[in-house]
Fold this sequence. Notes:
The protein has 325 residues and is of the alpha/beta class. The protein has two domains: 17-47 and 163-323, Rossmann fold (3-Layer(aba) Sandwich), CATH 3.40.50; 54-156, Rossmann fold. The chain contains nine helices and ten strands. It has helices at 54-68, 84-96, 110-118, 135-149, 164-179, 195-207, 259-273, 279-295, 320-323; strands at residues 26-28, 39-44, 76-80, 99-105, 122-126, 154-156, 186-190, 212-218, 253-257, 300-305. It has a six-stranded mixed β-sheet with strand order 1-2-10-7-8-9, with helices on both faces. The longest helix has 17 residues, at 279-295.
Amino acid sequence: MNPEAETPHPSAPADGVLGAIGNTPLVQLRRVAPPGCARILVKLEGANPTGSMKDRMALAVIRGAERSGGLQPGYAVVEYTGGSTGASLALVCAVLGYRLRIVTSNAFSEEKLTQMAALGAELTLVHSEGGIITRQLILDMIERAREISREPCTYWTDQLNNTDSIQGYAPMGEELWEQAGGDVDAFVQSIGTSASLQGVADALRRHRAEVRIVAVEPSESAVLSGGGAGAHRIEGIGIGRVPPRWNASVVNEIIGVSTADAQAMARRLAREEGLFAGTSSGANVRAAIQVGMQLGPQATVATLLVDSGLKYLTTDVYRRDAVAR
């Protein structure tokens, strides 16, 4: 499923770390889904090399930039990110030999900042008062990335507007369909750039046109549902405005999940299912269960655990004093 490498046998070694991107496990939830709920399947994207589904898009956008000639040897790559995209770009840039400059913020977990730096990214921090994610914070990060991109020999991957990222997620949809045995009634995914939802939806609907597609956003910042922008703590989603590549015609339903509910579900996944994931993954499962209760026990609802809980150890999700409450 990964276009970077041919894997003639499942047990064959990957040709470098880029060949290890994708082909992540799909598992059924056993305990958190209530009686009467559909079968809930979750794709474990934390099994990617940096612990995030963003490895898929990072590889796609860098390879796309090379093909177009926008990114050439000796150039620097720049992007604004809450962290997972930055770590994924850092991995790809380290392997392919590009300098990477990341614009990020103290609003995102210390683990993410550390991981980006460990992989060689140069960080520019935009301060967030109170460490919360707001529309203005995202706009400030974008503007700083734009300024850096004007420097000579610099390529901006511009994740909100980059269509290569959508294609980077299409293999995930193909994997999901195959692993589920062609039995998927609905797919649920939280919205940051919207690329992952669209890439997976396109792939699933090539197999079954009536697959129900459900988008998830923070209820505190429910702009896709027509509400106002607000502050929240679900990292990676809810940018406070409609993403430029958002295509409402793809989606059958939009569900809002609060930060508190997303965090609580992330903790339940760890304690009851042994699945260690981040806050947006908790939001995904919370929404998937809501859809599953609507569709009933004969249906199958698929969603993503988009990254590893190891990226959130010092946040309110898993910090020991917070978990003990």
